[in-house]
Every structure is written in C-alpha cells, then in structure tokens.
Write a structure and sequence with these properties.
The complex is a heterodimer of chains A (415) and B (120). Chain A is mainly alpha-helical and 415 residues long. Chain A has 21 helices and no strands. Chain A is 74% helix and 0% strand. Classes of the chains: A mainly alpha (415), B alpha+beta (120). The interface between A and B is medium-sized, with 14 and 13 residues.
Amino acid sequence: MDGRSALARAAAEAAARQSYGKLVAYLAARTRDVAGAEDALADAFAAALERWPKSGVPENPEAWLLAVARRRDVDAVRRRLTGEAARDHLQLIAEEAEARVTNEDLPDERLRLMFACAHPAIEASVRAPLILQTVLGFDAAAIASAFLVSPATMGQRLVRAKNRIREAGIPFRVPERAELGERLGAVLEAIYATFAEGWSDPAGTETRRRNLASEGIWLGRLVASLIPDEPETLGLLALMLFAEARRAARRNPEGDFVPLAEQDTALWDDTLIDEAEALLRRAAAMKIIGRYQLEAAVQSAHTARRRSGGTDWAAIRQLYEALMAIAGSPVVAINRSVAIAEAEGAAQGLAALDAIGDDKRLAEYQPYWAARAELSARLGRTADAAEAYDRAIGLERDPALRRFLQTERGKLVRN
Amino acid sequence: MRYMLLIYNDEAAMANVPRDKTEQTLAAYGAYTEALKKSGAYLAGERLRPTQAATSIRMADGKTNVLDGPYADTKEQLAGFYMIEATDIDTAMEWGARCPAASTGTVEVRPIWEMTDYLS
C-alpha cells in the first residue's frame, strides 16, 4: 500500500470509528442494549471501512452509515440477527434516526456510553476494553492482543459486560457533580489504560498498539472537550501528550532503548509539548489538584530540559511526594526513590527503595529491579547490581528494553 | 425497573445485640421503609425469621428430601428483602446503601427478571 492510500485508509478508519461510536452510543443510550446496537451497525461499518478509503469520507458519515444499515435487505438482516431486540433496533434506525440525521447531527452520547462502560458495577479490568469496543469499534481479537488476553476470553468478558449493562440496568448518563469524581476517575483510568497499552510499544512496530496510544489520546480529547471544567480531564490529556511528544526519541535508529536522560530533545515534538503545557496551566488555574495533573507536571519538569538543558530533580521529587499522598502506589514509590537518588544521591535513593521492598507486588515488577540495579551499580555494589539486573531482564517483555538492561549489566562485569 | 434488595446479616451477632440497640435498628428500618414509600419506590418488603426456622426441600429420584435448616451455611444469612421500583442500578444502589443492613451486613441488589425480558 503506498503512502497516499495508507493515509486515505487511516482517515476513513478514523471517521468510520468516530461515527460508529456515535451511532452505537446513540442507539444504546435509548435501549441499554449495546450488543443489539452493535449488531445493527456491523455491516454498515464494514462497508465503510471497505469503501471510504477509495471514495473518500462522506460529508455526513453518520447519515451514510445509517443509510447503508437501512438499505440492507431487511430479510437478510433478519436471518442473521436473532430476536426482537435486533429488529427493534433496525426499526429504531429507520424511524427515529431518519427524521433527525438527514438535516442535523446526532446528539453525541459517547460520553454517556463511556460512563456506562466504566460503571462501578462493571468489573474494573473490562472497562477499558469495553470502551474500546463500543466507542471505537475495535474487535475482540484486536483488544485481546493489546491487553495480552486470549481472544476467546476477551470476547466472553465483553459479552458478559454488555449483558450486565442491559440486565442490571446500568444507566447511560453523566453522573451528577457530587458523584462525578469517582465515576470520572474510572473513565479516565480506562482511557489511560488504553494509552498505556499503546505506549508500551514505543517503536510503533505493532500497529495495533500504536493505534491504541492515538485512540487513547483521541478519547482524552473527547472527554476534555465534553467536560472541560474538570481539571483532571485536562491533566490526563496533558500527561498523554507529554509522553506522546517523546515517542520518536525513545529509540535510536537501531531500535535500541534510549533512557529519558539521554534522549535527544530535538526529536521531541514541540507542538505537542506546548499544547500539553497549555492544558496543564488551564487545569492548574482551577485549583483542584489531582493525580493526572501531578503526573503531567512531572512530565512537564522532564521536558523543561529542552529549554533549560537541565532537570530540576528536587521539584520532581516534591511532585512524587504529593502523588504518594493522594495516589500512592508501588510505581509512584519507585519513581519517588529515583528522584531522591537524583536529587540527593544514590545511597538515599536505594534506602528509599529498601523502605518499600516489603511490598510483595514488587517482586515481579521490572522497574523496581531496574532501579535497584542502577543505583547499586552507581554505589559500586556490583554483586547486588548484577543480581537485580538479572531479575529485571527476566521480567521484561519488551526486547529493546531487555537489550538495554543486558548492555548495562555487561558494563558492570567489565568494570 | 424492579429490583430486589436482599438483606444478609450475621444472625448470631445480631442476636447478641443489646436491647436498646435492637430498638434503634428497628426504628431505623421503620424510617427507611417510610422513606421508600414516600418516594414511591416501595413495592414490598418483609423481614424473615432466622434460619433456625428454615426448611429446605429438594426432590431427587421421585423422593422429597426435607432438610432442617437453610439452603446453605453461610457467614451471613438472608434476613429479609425489599422490592423496589428504580429507574436504573444507580438509583437502586442508592437505596441499597441507605438500607440499615448495608452498615451491619450486606445488601445484594438484584434486578427482577421481568416477563417482558423473556421476549427479547
């Protein structure tokens, strides 16, 4: 496929997915039947993915999708779809939507759909996959490969979750302000999980994963535009943009891992960083601090190096202290230890790592061992460092990062 | 939608609660029931006698097995129920959380399988 048709395909996919999500949300918000809404649109979506790259994206993608869904031979559809619910949906498309869509845009119910998918009554681990499927139209196999689950298992979980939405009566609504905090947290968490899954493939060799990162940003933009007065929605978007801005610098031309401190700042995307900074400033002006704003602020401190040439580790350490206080986790504790090591010395950093070493979750957590290894090496504790590097290497799933750790361990032996 | 709020409590612990506490609890249930009725959500609600009064029945090979006791020995036992009308699970969960049993035991929220659900 040449560059232009690849672009056309990407544009068509994005438009189709956006329209698809809007239509699923629109239909499901009225019936609470997500699976039924998806069934009703499946053919039209497939047709769009096939035709739009050649014909161009239609002016009103939603109307196009609805028209194609309608034009299908009703009997043929009926043979495939079972039950009254599916027929109801077709009727709904034909009657209700026809009247409104031709002239005006559909009401955007995607945010409501996201809140339904991230409802506390839905198991936490299936919320992000459910959003990917319903809002973005990802199939179970694509989601399964991104989340390292078998397609059959993922398929079952998604079906179960959709049934639960309908049977338990999970509402399609944006929660009131009083309960928004916790609910919004689940939505943001699902979006961040989407992004993080894509982020773990920095070279972008796996197309599916790289797409997940951009889909995460896309969802982040959507939520930030729909709930702009919640600082955490802006904070999350800023956090993702900061990270995305450094994508090109995370690997050298040979595909090897480049640690943050050694990245060439000329490869960072200034436009994305500037946008992230602006978002973070807008969020900060609302004066309600939160986890994503703090994490974005850490990223901001790191990217300040592009102008100042140095990194303010004392500031980063303070930000991690604040994060520990409001959203402590092993990951935050490790990053805080690394910041302490940079600000005060490797011995202090290692002592901070020792202090959290009892946490059983860390035994299988690569960054913990990588941090231990590096700080031990700096202190000349070669045996400890070698052992920690071995643990880290054994736990890493990214080959580029594994090679980097092996190289570092190699230096150790030579010294 | 109609929902059942199934109330589970530790019977043994409840039996040992001092009398004035029990009266307080009963008053709380009274107020809760009243609130449900005022809001129009109330459909039904009863307290059940403890599991020592329970009899479990099972048919196998044409024979009736009668078991002296509850269906399952659990840490908390089914102690009563409310049936309510709620627009969605959020509203049902809110009522579940207000139920005095939510702070002494567990309230299980279950949607009723309506006749109309069979058709779809």
